[in-house]
Amino acid sequence: MAEAHQAVGFQFTVRPDGVDLKLSQEVIKNIYLSGVTAWKKKAIQFKNGILTGVYPASPSSWLIVVIAMMSSLYTYIDPSLGMIEAIKENLPYKDCMSVQTRAVLSAILFATGLWLFFIYLMRYTLKALLSYHGWIFESHGKMSRATKLWLSLVKMFSGRRPLLYSFQAALPRLPVPRVDDTVQKYLESVRPLLDSEQYNQMEILANGFKETEAAQLQRYLILKSWWSTNYVSDWWEEYIYLRSRSPIMVNSNFYIMDLLYVTPTHRQAARAGNVVHAMLQYRRKLERGEHVPLRALGIVPMCSTQMERMFNTTRIPGIETDIVQHLTDRKHLIVYHKGRFFKVWLYTGGRHLLPSELETQFQRILNDKSEPQPGELKLAALTAGDRVPWARARIKYFSHGLNKVSLDAIESAAFFLTLDEEPQGYDPAKDNSLDIYAKSLLHGKCYDRWFDKSFTLISYPNGKMGVNIEHSWADAPIVGHMWEYVLATDCFHLGYTEEGHCKGDVNRGLPCPTQLQWQISAECQDVIETSYLLARQLADDVDFHGYLFSEFGKGLIKKCRTSPDAFIQLALQLAQFRDQGVFCLTYESSMTRMFRDGRTETVRSCTSEAVAFVRAMEDPRSTNAHRLALFQRAAEKHQNMYRLAMTGCGIDRHLFCLYIVSKYLGVESPFLKKVLSEPWKLSTSQTPQQQLNLVDINKFPKYVGAGGGFGPVADDGYGVSYIIVGENLITFHISSKFSSPDTDSGRFGQHIWKAMIDIQALFKLENNKRMVENGKCVHLEHLKKLM
């Protein structure tokens, strides 16, 4: 076979007159180019590392300072106030240097020290400026003079052309809130959910906590905040994600969908080729730190730490806890198709495979008619079931021989790609097309995604794509950033031929993908089947409903002078009450990435103000004006809570960390135990859109994403993800469990739709009333003139 010959770098034959050595020029050329590429990559990383390390200054500024100091030697002006002379007198080996050399070297050393001092001064000044969050609490469209001055200073100290990690050292640390503040906010958050007796009991527990163990736990937490870059994130990753022993499929992993209305090509291999190539371009910029950092208002930087582990990352199962394994410079991809695993090299001749070359490789896999090896078909179900059996199976069956080699190939791959067999995507002609699409992305067949990989890219026969993401290493906005880049690059930069193939010449000389080899015993196959049956039961229990709300969107909501997020959250509270007849503890995810290593905080959306509004909506005696006033009060309350969460003044992460400290110290806290055991029956999240602004959706309205979603957090609750798409569309992804007699995702979707319409009607009625009143005034003025 041609690929076998290309894989041999040299051949030799031993003869009586010596050794006949034959070199393969093609392979030697590839080795040479790979080496050149590797050194070039290291040089770029080294250069960008220096640029990031000295930011907000630049290497050229060092040269300016050195020249200025050198010039002072000839002007007989000493700006160092004698320090250059002191350095000159204390130089080692000064007897071996001339006076001129010592003077120049002393000036350079002083200039370098002065330059480093100014770097740290600017960096800590920027950190102090970024610790101010007053701007976020100001009304939309209104900006105080203090904030304008603050923004100018931030812009001045932020430097020019920052790289991805340039601001990391200047980001402030997440502050530890006061215990009294956190407890007070907590009691306020549960007041609408408890009757008087229950609330009094909770108040007693809270006061007992403040008077006894709180001070000791808080001291340890403050000490941790001084020592670590973020007092929450490492414990959050370990105890919320990695120590969980239940399946991560459905319970933890989440998904992101493809473009809603557009499919650039209906050729599966071609679409996968373009998307994988775009991902490799994104990864190259990520490894070099060349992405532009995200900044609120275009000025305030966000933490980029989570992006580091996007590629080359796998969650490794353990008996007590999992670990996240992150490698560097992985050059292959694992592809799953019809029960078989293939290894595809992503480089040739020191460069990425071109989209047309990737299409060729994927088409070869699609055309391969071989059967799966014994036990191979459902092997990935091990990653979908309970963690402990998977950890034990990994040690027992996959720690040696062929199985170890193949498993290492999967776990060390850049990412995982599934070439699926059934078409998916949004189809307006089918009522449940989004439901089926979402379930396919969330769990598939339970054995055709490697749920432990940082993400699994899923390609469908009709050209649609999607991503299933493991949650421990990052949150949804991080993957959303990459996915926006990939889709924009795929559609607007790479493109396709008229026949739907990837652009570029077809290279059929590439080595064929290599099928991974397994020796899976009957005993191991029983373990795989047990894991599969558990995962199948979990997947079949997911009741999913997705729909597009197109009656109105962000544009109309903003005209009502209301935050779109607050509007939707209050609609969810109204829908929840209509669906269940009671209010419940509600989780909304907020980000804390304005702080170093920040991840998320919880916004408790079910407030007393929200409850008052919902009760007014359900009270036929309540007037429209009264309802609207209560809505605006509830919306303002929600916005303020969201802002507090973003600025490090939330409730739940502080209480969580206090609980972890109590466990380390062996301190029993009835209050913390009660708080951490409360179920979130309504868990919500907004999927970010247009983080990069690579596509003008006003110009290309069809090139919008459908967002993503997740499984239900509580067995008898709902999970709701929503994305605000442009000005006139909102998509909802609703999940629950069939096994719960109290929930129905389709029914809840109808309640959300009705709640959105009813709230919007409040503003419509109020506007009509104002128009009538204005009309009467105009009519009266006209009559007065006639008289």
From TrEMBL:
Transmembrane parts of this sequence: 61-82, 103-122
SUPFAM superfamilies (UniProt xref): CoA-dependent acyltransferases (SSF52777)
Protein location: Mitochondrion outer membrane
Record PROSITE patterns: ACYLTRANSF_C_1, ACYLTRANSF_C_2
Recorded superkingdom: Eukaryota
Reaction(s) the record says it catalyses: (R)-carnitine + hexadecanoyl-CoA = O-hexadecanoyl-(R)-carnitine + CoA
Keyword Acyltransferase: yes
Membrane topology: Multi-pass membrane protein
Residues of the Carnitine O-palmitoyltransferase N-terminal domain: 1-47
Annotated pathway: Lipid metabolism; fatty acid beta-oxidation
Keyword Signal: no
UniProt keywords, alphabetically: Acyltransferase, Fatty acid metabolism, Lipid metabolism, Membrane, Mitochondrion, Mitochondrion outer membrane, Transferase, Transmembrane, Transmembrane helix, Transport
Function noted in UniProt: Catalyzes the transfer of the acyl group of long-chain fatty acid-CoA conjugates onto carnitine, an essential step for the mitochondrial uptake of long-chain fatty acids and their subsequent beta-oxidation in the mitochondrion.
Xref: PANTHER family: CARNITINE O-ACYLTRANSFERASE, CARNITINE O-PALMITOYLTRANSFERASE 1, MUSCLE ISOFORM
Similarity section: Belongs to the carnitine/choline acetyltransferase family.
Protein name: Carnitine O-palmitoyltransferase 1, muscle isoform
Native source organism of the sequence: Ataeniobius toweri
The encoding gene: CPT1A_5
